[in-house]
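Side project, low priority. Logging it here so it doesn't get lost.
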Amino acid sequence: MNNKNINNEYVNYREFKGWNTFFNPTDSEVSQLDYEFKNVPIQSGTLLLDVGFGNGALLKWASNKLANIAGIELNDELIREAKKFEIKLYSSLNSVESKSIDVLTFMDVFEHLEIMEINQTLVEAARVLKDGGYLVARFPNCQSPAGLIEQFGDVTHKTMLSAPILSAKLKEHGFKITSIAGAIPLSEFPVGINAKILLGIKKGVRKIILLIYRLGFGTGKALLSPSIIVTAKLD
């Protein structure tokens, strides 16, 4: 894939995502990350590499936990922002030292890749992670109607994924799945009493809708959250 074409796709991505600040996670983002990484050891000395670091919230959150941090990005504007904060940057996974990373993250990344690219990325992920290292991935849940809203709301998304699909790919490349869960949207980590009351109402309505959907379509145990978060460990 031509890197120039890739960068052209993301020219206005900062505005599209509404990223106004960088490497400065909000209280809601901190709560979300605390939830998503509750089963991943991140502490002093942990080397965390975030692929597609976006606004840098995850990297700053990990840095606050005394982890060593590094990132990969395609968007030139985001790379410039990272350099202001002296973040260690790699041009791609190919340039990362073998067996050097403790935690490798792909938060809302794999849906931007073709299946062949996902396979190639996982080959490199297995190479750069230390034995026993963790891979964490979040992506739109295309087994769910709510996930389709996430998937088709971004023109740069290329591949439809689900928990079973990505889990199978991870296992093919030597990973052991340690957890699969519905990712909780940032809006559900509200700040302020009015936002929390509204969230409580939304959750009640959603439970009723999900019950009706399961009864009507027989979805069994399939997760119906908008996004999925999968954690895997390199055997």
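Brief comment: Strands lie at 47-51, 68-72, 88-90, 101-107, 129-140, 175-183, 227-234.
Revisit when time allows.
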